[in-house]
Model the fold of this input.
Amino acid sequence: MFSGAEAGPAAAASGDAAAAGTKLIDLTDKLDKSGCYARNEDTRFPWTNLSIGDTRLGCKSDADEQLILHFAFQESVKVHSIKLTEFNNGIEPENNPTRILLFVNRDNLGFEDVEDVDPTTVIELTSDDLKENADNTLLKFVQYQRVNSITMFVEDNNGGDITALGALKFFGKTVATTNMADFKKQG
Done:
C-alpha cells in the first residue's frame, strides 16, 4: 500500500522518469474533459473544480462519503505521481479522503463494479499527505506506462458524512505515439 509520506521531492525528481531523461509535467492539460465524469458528486462542487487551483471550490461527494472520479486523457500518458490537496485548507478534516483505490484503463466503473475489480493501487492517506506543501503520492511507475484513463474510487474518509477534495493533479509524461493522420497515402 502507498502513502504520500513514503518519498520526498528528491525521490520524485530522481525517479524512473528522470532516469529516462525526460522531465515530468503536470498532465492536467492532457485531460479529455468530455470523457471525464464523477459519480455521487455534489453538483455545487463538481469534479471540474479540482483543476482550478482554488481549494475552496474543490469537489464534494453528495449522498455519502464514497465518490468515483474518472479521468480520461487525450492521449496515452505515463503517470509518475498524483497530488491530492485537502478542501479549503483542511477546515473540515473529517471530510478528508483516507482510502483511495485507483483503476487504470477501466471505463464506466460504478459503485457496483469496484468491489469486483482489483485496483491497480490502493492509497492510504493522512491529513498531512493532503497539505498543499506535502510531497506528491508516488505510484508504481511500471503500472502506469500506457494510461488512457484513471478511475479514482474514494472508499473512505476521516469520519465525515461526505468527502471533500480541494485539488488534484497528475504528474508524468506523454507517450511517444505515431499519429496515422500525419502519413500521406502513397501511390
In short: Residues 119 and 177 are 26 Å apart (CA to CA). Strands lie at 25-26, 37-39, 59-60, 67-85, 97-104, 121-124, 137-138, 147-157, 164-165, 167-174.
